[in-house]
Description:
alpha/beta, Nucleotidyltransferase, domain 5, seven-stranded mixed sheet, 11 helices, globular, RNaseH_sf
Amino acid sequence: MSSKLLASLKLAQLKHAAFLTGLPSAGTKADIIAVLESNIPTRTPIATGSRIVSVDMGIRNLAYCVLDVPKAPLPHANPPKPSPLKVLEWKRIDLLHPSAIESQKPPTSSDTQVKPSTKKPAPISPSAFTPSHLSHTALSLSRTLLSHSPTTILIERQRFRSGGGPAIQEWTVRVNMLEAMLWACLATLRETSSLERKGAGARAGPGQGEFPAVFEVLPARVAGFWVGEPGVSLRLTAETFISGRVEPAASASAPSGRKRVQKKDKVAVVRSWLDENKGKGKGNGNGNGNGNGNGNSHPDISLAFSGEAAKVAKAFAAPNGRSSSSRGTIEEGSVEEESEERMGKRDDLADCLLQGVAWTRWEENRDLLAQLLRS
């Protein structure tokens, strides 16, 4: 990578590049150059046929999706028509009562309204949150994620505090403990699988036994990427660096005025993708999505849902049964929900999908940036 070329760019251009590649965009010019130099050259480009498992952490409300990354469009295509990201799985599970959510079926099209669930969950023993029990939960979760044969696993990075408050909530401690155990389980399974392959003399190729790469993802960075300033393109282009032009507010990693991204904003992003599909008259769960809930349009984002994921997508896009709800708070996160639908909490499902799609875009932008800096 050309350090001279990076040094020739303006601070706003460097911030723009860091923002579009999912890297920290705060700091001085030297700070951002160091971040780009340490991440872009050493990264492994996203491979054709790769599979991503994106996890939104939780205990009672853990959500994950499985995405198959399509083949990159041909460079001579004018304009290039991207293939859709294939969403193979999109679900939310209760790790303490896995069957309670996994057995739920999304509402059918015959339902005119989505009624809130009044059934109380079964009581949970306090011992379920002890290290001895959570360790088994983490191991089971690890095996579930690996059963999808991913090449990449994305794990939402948990915070210790919410809203800048001084107190650390009990649920936060529990989820953080599970997050740490999940990482430990995956690291152990990676090591043991490597030893087994080495002992057997096996030489696995891509997607044929190699352990997936595991990355942590900051939720604030994902939210700032999708719910940002109107008119900001989320695809890196060579013209930005050649002409010295920086798109309006592209250097920001969060909406203007330091507005806090709310759950409903992220749900609106996913809903806009699904609504775009509905607007094109496709009722089979396959289609394109654009928009980011703030008036931005991203017509090159394309999603194709299959199987149960298509049913979840249809239920996700269905209108709420009521406009608002304040029937108490959810234990995990202690945040009042906009509504409680039969299909469950939409924000968890939205978070894991936004995280997975953002990662694919960051990887594409990193590939292009690396090519530009090497040329």
